[in-house]
Amino acid sequence: MATVTFRDETATGRPLGEWEVAGLPDRMTVRELIGLRVQKEVARYNARPGNRFNGLVRPADAEVELNGYRLREPRRIDWERQAEIAERAFLANGFFVLAGDRQVEDLDEVVDLTVDPGLVFIKLVALVGG
After folding, report:
1. Taking the model in full, what pTM does it have?
2. Residue among 32, 34, 9, 37 nearest 21 (CA)
3. What is the pLDDT of residue 61?
4. 129: left (phi over 0), alpha (psi -120 to 50) or beta
5. Does the structure show a pLDDT above 70 at 129?
6. Which of 36, 93, 120, 121 could form an SS bridge with 98, CB 3.0 to 4.6 Å?
């Protein structure tokens, strides 16, 4: 069984946060890893709903804030819906994922967690005016 470390960084490499999930298969697809990440962060939020959600992608009807999203009111978030949004964002280059020292480019690419146990997520921010 493997342990994966999910780490968020800025495009310049500044760390924003990090957390681990243990007890995983040795090999998983990028799609499965993104889904797992989203499921865990939504479960954390749903355990204590508030007006702010810190996650990979923006929930529906939420406003972007610095390093997170503001919800109009606390509510439960559907992790499966968020996982679909995350997959679309990955395909549209809304964020990219590094496994070890390489960028993974396909949702169905398999990552060997015994070799690359750390995944870095880098969100890309749209520039104002362009």
Report:
1. 0.91
2. 37
3. 87
4. left
5. no
6. 120
Whether 129 maps to a domain, the answer reads no
The 3-class secondary structure across 17-85, one letter per residue, is EEEEEEEECCEEEHHHHHHHHHHHHHHHHHHCCCCEECCCCCCCCEEEECCEEEECCCCCCCHHHHHHH
Residue span of the structural domain in which 68 resides:
2-123
Q: Are 5 and 85 in contact (CB under 8 A)?
A: no
CA-to-CA separations, 25 to 19, 83, 121, in angstroms, rounded: 17, 19, 20
Task: Kindly give the pairing relationship between strand 15-24 and strand 27-29.
Answer: unpaired
In this predicted structure, the answer to whether residue 35 has a pLDDT above a threshold of 70 is: yes
- Give all strands of the β-sheet with 62-65 in edge-to-edge order: 52-53, 68-71, 62-65
Q: Does residue 29 carry a pLDDT above 50?
A: yes
Dig out the tokens for 81 from the structure.
Answer: 């819906």
